[in-house]
Please model this.
Amino acid sequence: MNELLLSRWQFAITSTYHFLFVPLTLGLSILLAIMETLYVRTGNETYKQMTRFWGKLFLINFAMGVVTGIVLEFQFGMNWSEYARFMGDIFGVPLAIEALTSFFLESTFLGIWIFGWDRLSKSLHAATMWVVAIGGNLSALWILAANSFMQQPVGYVLNQGRVELTDFGALVTNGNLLVQYPHVLASGIVTAGFFVLAVSAYHLLRKGRDLELFRRSFRGGLVYALVGTLAIVAVGHLQGQHMIRVQPMKMAAAEALWNSEDPAAFSVFSLIDETQKRDVFAIRIPAVLSFLAHNYFGGMVQGINNLQTDYEKQYGPGNYVPSVAVNYWSFRLMVGAGFLMLLLAVVGMVLVVQKRVEQVPWYLKILMPALALPYLANTTGWMLTEMGRQPWIVFGLQKTADAVSRSITPGMVLVSLIAFTLVYGALMAVDVYLLVKTARRGASGLEEAAA
Amino acid sequence: MDLNTLWFILIGVLFTGFFFLEGFDYGVGILLPWLGKQDLERRIIANSIGPFWDGNEVWLITAGGASFAAFPHFYATLFSGFYLPLLLVLLALIVRGVAFEFRGKDSHPAWRSTWDWMIFVGSALPALLWGVAMANLLLGVPIDASKTYVGGFFNLLNPWALVCGLTTLVGFTLHGALFLRLKTSGAVSERAEAAARMLWLPAIVLLVVALFAGYFVTGVFSRLGAVPILVPVLAGAAGLAAGWFLRRGRAGPAFAMTGATIALSTAALFVGLFPRLMVSSLNPEWSLTITNASSSPYTLRTMTIVAVIFVPLVLLYQAWSYYVFRERVGRESSLKY
Model:
């Protein structure tokens, strides 16, 4: 193991871990702001109880998101300092703007929200949660503007061995950002929706206290989940088409499409032999991939081997094929989880409209393990995004192998990798323990415990 | 003034804000298990910085982000060169951050005391390490012609840097004790004042030694002569004034003076550095400066516009949050942590 491989593992572990907490923060903050606004508008105490109960869960999750986020900002310098030198002129800009415009907003106003229940007027207090929600979701915009440049470099010149920004407007209207940002926002909404559904389903099944509160939460969570999944299917389709244009290799790997095809077939299931670059076994539906790419059943979709030849001509000798198995299976797990969530949301909506959801225990029981689905989709989605870009760290401009710090040794990275893994593992156990305990206790139970 | 100089000052300002605000946060965290005799008192202590600490920590994130954007080579060399100390800082900030949130979520005494000690370690370690790191920027570390750090971990643990680390550790604790004196009521507040009186002497001795020795070991004297000596002298004077007010039981002005000491010491560091950001001990030519480490003029211009608009806004709403929670925290307060 060398420092490159160890640093890649460390970044993968710490960023995946961070993103376990981010989508729930993004989606639930908006939902909390809506709940509290309903309380202010109607004066109905149940909405206040809802805001406080879901707010407790939100805060446990938020703390984990914050502390794991700092690690990422530091790591670009600690482990990837050659990347920081090459990209700082561009990458540092959205990162600094994120801290200055969004993270300050989010953390300061969250502090006011937590401690300000008795100090601010009702409407001002609700407004602080809106500021938190806007700050958090804006923060995602800047981080994704930075990531989008890595997928699709825009508005830059190469000067003396580094990229320099020439057009800030291009950075924030990057085509990749325009599809990636809505995708992440929607994934936040879906995650929050299924989170609320899972916890509410638990309480509806037990028929304990606070039934009215969890009925209302359930309906809200369901609308949220349905809107989110529909949005994600739509934007996911657009993002796929965008990817075929700007990162055709990523899509070819996600489809295990070895050679260019016209019309191209969609893989339902492929067993992949990466060394021989062929399928061991595959079920494909003719022309469907062309349809996904071009909205009609024809048209060329480029394959891995053809792209490899093109890239060698363009960038010189080298291997430009990412791990096909990782991309292929990430893509399928993400899309599969997405459609399963859409199905669950639609079924739930039918049951709610028929007013019989509480008479269908099997559906409520499914919703609890179904909470794994948004997390699976969020994680595999980023695996596809980042692994599909390899061997590049910045597509077409810098390879991951050239980005690692020169002053670090494998021993140092091994120490940090072990330390992060141990601390993160322990904290995950604590976090899950607290979330489960808090969620089970229910709204009245928490108020009593606090009193 | 050119933009490179402006950004050098701005990064100095961000670090000053960070040390001033997180300084008392760290101090409060360090004092928590010692001044809080029972759980209720520890809750009062934790809640005194409850609404603020996360917003204060963003000053660090912003200082890091601004260094990345304005001086990428500085950010790259510093963070990769100081790999192990920064790893410790990160681990400390992780456990400290969740500890505030988690400590109140279970009432078992062992649970609470575990997180309280996490808060202590998570505050003390960065309070020490920031002093060590900042001292090394000025003292100089082995940086080669390609702007790469070529030293090891133990290059950073030289005597002067350790004195500076102890200075920030004890100084931040004093700053935090005065904050607690002002922000809490009852026994906690009284114990905080006693702690401040006890901490002042070691803090001022360390500070004077750090400033005086630094003037010679870092070569600032031979480079700049006696003119910039005014800044560290003012820092020392503010530290003395803090003791004068403290002895008269006036915690408010004493806190303002420890704050001024932090700000002036940070200023002294940056005055000593200018126009360098990180000194190479191998060859002065290889030091990172505001020109050879900087971003392009276009990026600096863009960032200047953003900073001019948003830094005042941040100051405004953070000040408002301190105004909202201006009351002392005591036994009757509704406690969250």
User: Anything to note?
Assistant: The domain at 3-324 of chain B is CATH 1.20.1630.10 (Formate dehydrogenase/DMSO reductase fold). The longest helix of chain B spans residues 3-35. The CA atoms of residues 47 and 334 of chain B lie 9 Å apart.
